[in-house]
Amino acid sequence: MAVYSMTGYASAQYSGPANLVEGAPKPATNGRLGLEIRSVNSRFLDLAFRLPEELRHVEPALRERVNARLKRGKVELRLTLEADAGALLADPTPRLLQRLNAVQDSVRAWLPSATPLSVAEVIRLSSTESSTGPGWTDAQVLELADQVLTGLLAAREREGARLGIMLLERIAQLRALAQQAQPLIPQLVEQQRQRFLERWKEAMALTDGATLPEAARDRALTEATAFAIRIDVAEELTRLNSHFDEIERLVKKGAEIGKRLDFLIQELHREANTMGSKSAALELTHISVDMKVLIEQMREQVQNIE
Fold first, then answer.
1. 23 and 100 belong to one structural domain
2. 3-state secondary structure of 60
3. How crowded is the C-beta side of 102, counted as CA atoms within 13 Å?
4. pTM, whole model, 2 decimals?
5. Which of 30-34, 167-171, 228-232 holds the top average pLDDT?
6. Are 285 and 185 in a shared domain?
7. What distance in Å separates the CA atoms of residue 62 and residue 304, rounded to the nearest whole number?
């Protein structure tokens, strides 16, 4: 399955009967019905609908469709209605003109000083009369929503594919850093052992041949062993490699992996921090810092994965 980003955008519109999807019923208007969906990252599925009052009743069905196809993200769906210029300047019908004249006469009978209707006012009232209904059925709105949701999923899939490639590239770089750190551990332990031996010899020389207590020698060996344990990051490297394997497996598997990846990124950061705190050599400190930079880059991108 694919990796999906939570970031995406898609839009579509019906511009009169000629541009409808094949098989769709024709609307009773030559206007335009437009729908756009945009989404960004969010911990949960957060929906916001911007609908004209004429189509507010379609919101429950639209919400059901979005819930069925999206799992996470802050999603905004905007539906717009536009009338054609010809519809805005529709010729007033004789019936409408008779009604307007009758209403005007009735008003002026009670208010003789009332201003007669102007041509502009008649055209405006005529346009309002001719567009009392949107002319679009619920089925057409829902069909357009399905079309736009398909486009949004395709956009999120393309973005998710790019994020997956980036994560795998960062994992490869982290593996290389872990391999650089691996041989440093026994070297550091051996270096510290040599230091303790040198200090032991210096202490023996200061005694002018006198024998140091056996307890002093045992204490020195104990301290050397304890230090070797403190600086040994082999366990952290093992856990890091295990997390690398799991992240690669999830990215290749796809589907809803964002929350699991987020948890694994936190674990990677913790192990890299521990390795840096145990560091007894400048090389290991540099490796830890480089790891944390790569992990932070991954964290920012994982926030966008569904």
1. no
2. helix
3. 6
4. 0.67
5. 167-171
6. yes
7. 24
